[in-house]
Amino acid sequence: QLQLVESGGGLVQPGGSLRVSCAASGFTLSYYAIGWYRQAPGKEREGISCISASGGSGNYAESVKGRFLISRDNAQNIVYLQMNSLKPEDTAVYYCGASERSACPVGRVTSWGQGTQVTVSS
After folding, report:
1. Among 51, 74, 90, 97, who pairs with 58 as Cys (CB 3.0-4.6 Å)?
2. Interval 44-80: pLDDT, tens
3. DSSP letters of 39-98?
4. Which SS3 state, helix, strand or coil, does residue 119 take?
């Protein structure tokens, strides 16, 4: 089973920026489409972005479009999510996930990271 690890979360002020990372070890992440998801307390996990194995511009949920940017560095086995103009409603645990698919959408996620907490507050 794929193992993914998120990092880079923390506390940021409204309007600020943060970059979270999704890394893999022991397998080639470049084979897979990678999605970013988030879950706030009491809410369903929400898909917010996806990038295909080959890279490209990615896709975004309406809630984050224009503010977040997904990218990948296949040589380093890492997928990034750059988050700009952060709002309090962006506060959530952020997860990356994958399936057997190489192109977006990920669809049914079969491999999740442990999540990283992002808190947007003044």
Report:
1. 51
2. 999 999 999 999 889 999 999 999 999 999 889 999 9
3. E-TTS--EEEEEEETTEEEEEE-TTTTTTEEEEEETTTTEEEEEE-S--GGG-EEEEEEE
4. strand
Tokens of 113: 């990271």
Q: What is the DSSP letter of 27?
A: S
Sign of CA dihedral 112, 65, 10, 44: negative
- The whole-angstrom separation of Cα 114 and Cα 94 is 9
CA distances (Å), origin 70, targets 49, 67, 80, 84, 122: 7, 10, 6, 11, 25
CA-closest candidate to residue 41, choices 111, 112, 98, 89: 89
Of 114, 62, 121, the C-alpha closest to 89 is 121
Contact yes or no for 36/70 (Cβ under 8 A): yes
